[in-house]
């Protein structure tokens, strides 16, 4: 920082003061630009994170629904398989009984 003597006169030239002020403004602008860019990057990342979390939770909900659907379908298929086994047993009994009665 340019100094001022005790008698009030400048110990540095006016150009030095102007140069110092311009340098100070440049540094603040650079810092402000950095902060703006940093904030923009953070905001962009926050949005991407939110989208990712939402997508993950939607996928989880979808998988959960699919799980319940597949469990129900599996139970129905097991019931159908048991009914078919019973029909096979009944048909075998009919065949054996018809052979014996013949």
UniProtKB/TrEMBL annotation:
Location of the BZIP domain: 38-98
SUPFAM superfamilies linked to this entry: Leucine zipper domain (SSF57959)
Top-rank lineage group of the source organism: Eukaryota
Pfam families the record matches: bZIP_2
GO molecular function: DNA-binding transcription factor activity
Entries under SMART domains matching the protein: BRLZ
Alphabetized InterPro entries for the sequence: bZIP, bZIP_sf
Name of the protein: BZIP domain-containing protein
């Amino acid at each position: 920082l340019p100094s001022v003597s005790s008698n009030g006169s400048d110990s540095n030239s006016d150009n030095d003061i102007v140069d110092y002020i311009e340098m100070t403004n440049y540094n603040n602008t650079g810092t402000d630009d950095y902060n703006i860019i940093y904030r923009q990057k953070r905001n962009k990342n926050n949005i991407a994170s939110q989208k990712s979390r939402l997508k993950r939770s939607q996928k989880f909900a979808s998988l959960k629904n699919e799980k319940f659907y597949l469990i129900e379908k599996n139970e129905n298929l097991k019931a159908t398989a048991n009914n078919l086994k019973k029909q096979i047993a009944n048909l075998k009994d009919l065949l054996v009984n018809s052979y014996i009665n013949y």
